[in-house]
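During the reporting period the student researcher (J.K.) took over the structure-prediction task from the postdoctoral fellow and processed the backlog of single-chain submissions. One of the processed entries is reproduced below for the supervisory committee.
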Amino acid sequence: MAEPARTEIEIGCWVAAAPDRADRRLVAVEISPPSAVADTVRPPIDLVLAIDRSSSMVGTRIAAAVEAARQICLRLGQRDRLAVVAFDGLAQVVRWPGAVTPETAAEIVLELTELGVGYGTNISAAWKKAVETIARGGIPGASKTVLLMTDGLPSRGLREHEELAALARSGVAQGIVTSAVGIGDRFDEKLLARMAVAGGGSFRFAEHDEDTIAVADEEVEGLTGLVAEDAVLHLGFARVVSQFEVLHELKCRPDGDGVAVDVGRVFAGRPRQVLIQVTVTGDARHLGAIGLSCMGSDGESREVDPVRILVPAPGQESGDLERVGAAFVPLTVARWQQKIWDCGRDPSFRRVAEVIALARKDLAGLAEDLRTSPEAAEAIARFEAGCNRIEEILRDVKASPEAKRRNTDVALKGMSEESSHTMVGVTSLGPHPPGGRRGWGKK
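J.K. obtained the following structure tokens:
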């Protein structure tokens, strides 16, 4: 007889020696949600689509964004609220928050089509208008999200990365998550990734116009599977731990005698990981304890019983090493991806091949047990595919410098999407299996 499906979040913890120093341990924590959540249990969704209508969106690009909006309407339920903001150099509300009915999709398509395209790209104005829209028409207790869809660089309003990231961060304080979809090959992926990370959301890349529909649909599919908001890990360490560092890019703050790590949203079927490095001053099997608190999808506060951080006994290290590798290897890959991204901005590409070679050597030198988990193996395989793609582009003697630049930019944007998710501990980018639409190694 099959076991009944889990309905609650669980946490697991594994410990292994760090590869670089004998006095350090890696502690991998996995937040494991149930595989599905009932639609009647999840909170209603307050979603604002902020759609770029600048001149570069003309033609198939704006048509794909409009179709994405239509598909989102069809996925949401009548308990949810949807609003639409369109922006160029300015931002305007196309539709104020309202219930999603069978007529909503057709109405939004007509309103956006009649609006046409304009000039300039003002991302800050779009974000502020979207937040204002949620504040005026939102539902108490709803899951609030701004989904920004753009193909360009900010030319009006705030333009600096940190200024725009600070905006998204201020939304989190209001209970509003910011996610972003970058369309085509001309937008600033580092900007959108920073806004999404600061805003507690996700950054996704639509390489082709038609991909806009798929990535927007994936974002909303995730929202309908929301298990918990405001998930927080509570870490308390034993006296033998002299130092600790959270290696994923998550906000940490003091919590009594320990530290709280803000994880944010947890979605059905998508585990979250937090990797911690600790320095140990003596022999001890017990390094501390880890608990979890969150706001459940039913609006009730939840606490998961703490688990102890235990160093595995002799003969049991291999199993822990594999599970630690499931977090450590993808995170190592993401950091190499970011280094390649930085080198790829150099028009000469001289450093790219050198960094790829260093990355491959580093990954090959990891302990075998670290690389045996499915998560680690997939991360390495996708990394190899991405490196092969970039090398193939650079070896193409028939391609013009402009074509090489464009194709490399596309590869780097896919890499930025993947690494931005990994850096905050998301183990799955969405419901699509490897080899599908996404992944910076895909041709």
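The committee noted the following: The chain has ten helices and 15 strands.
J.K. will present the remaining backlog at the next meeting.
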